[in-house]
Amino acid sequence: MNASGFKPALPGISSSKRLGFFSFSGGNQPFDLKPRGVCLIKAAMEETRTLKLDVNGKVGDKLPNGHAGKNHNQLSTIGNSTNIKWHECPVEKIDRQKLLKQKGCVIWITGLSGSGKSTVACALSHMLYQRGNLSYVLDGDNIRHGLNRDLSFKAEDRAENIRRVGEVAKLFADAGFICIACLISPYRRDRAECRAMVPSKDFVEVFMDVPLQVCENRDPKGLYKLARAGKIKGFTGIDDPYEPPLDAEIVLQCNTGDCSTPCDMAEKVISYLEVKGYLQA
Ligand SMILES: Nc1ncnc2c1ncn2[C@@H]1O[C@H](COP(=O)(O)OS(=O)(=O)O)[C@@H](OP(=O)(O)O)[C@H]1O
Ligand SMILES: Nc1ncnc2c1ncn2[C@@H]1O[C@H](COP(=O)(O)OP(=O)(O)O)[C@@H](O)[C@H]1O
């Protein structure tokens, strides 16, 4: 806090471009982010008022770059949401990344049930934590306990499951996290749609290339046994499809009796992130 009761400026958010854009003199608002005579919030309010006079219609579902929603100047219709407008905030991804000293991205781990997705995700998250990098795991099983509890395992519900997790992962990456999503995500198309949600290169697909036989032998939850007995219908790999990736950034192979440890697998992902520069801002 400074003498006037405001928090000092956050480091790194005072680019001249943004100060110019939001420039505002005076101001004594309760949410005044303050510093240096610039009230970012009030200026943004001014900008919204101006734009309201300008808008006169809706735009299509998707912008040319494929990212739905971020039309800064006009009202949009996205799906069933009519007359919505993107609200920009002064603190951006690049600012959060500087704070966290890393780059936000999505690590998408796909593979059969029992292939080791959750184990690698947790090993990776732990190794990142030990290095001082912030990550968060979105595990399909866990998310089906809450956000996606309304979804079954039929193809269209799996697609919606993947879409929602893709959207959440996109937010985490935008927050600056290394977001680790681990879901069976059996359909190429669903995974490709998630890839398209984030800036190119920020989506790292990791394929757990583990034969069905190995997964079935592990069967830690007894689900394969139930599926073979016909007590679970539409189980991936048994009577439901799994489409392996054709162009995954990382393939973690595990042949019968010849498996790297989860830590070695996680290490491969860390090496990839290091080389690509995600572990520093
Ligand atoms: N029919 C069927 N097919 C596949 N898996 C099933 C099924 N029914 C329940 N389960 C359990 O649900 C976990 C997979 O959830 P996901 O959200 O990752 O699946 S999907 O991506 O929507 O296909 C999966 O967890 P993992 O073993 O961790 O993959 C299973 O425990
Ligand atoms: N690299 C590995 N080598 C040997 N066993 C593993 C390996 N990774 C995971 N496992 C074991 O395989 C089983 C399934 O792992 P899990 O992470 O739950 O898979 P998934 O999330 O894909 O269903 C667990 O019993 C786990 O201990």
From TrEMBL:
GO CC terms: cytoplasm
Domain APS kinase: residue ranges: 103-252
Record keyword Nucleotide-binding present: yes
InterPro entries: APS, APS_kinase_dom
Pathway: Sulfur metabolism; hydrogen sulfide biosynthesis; sulfite from sulfate: step 2/3
Function: Catalyzes the synthesis of activated sulfate.
Record protein name field: Adenylyl-sulfate kinase
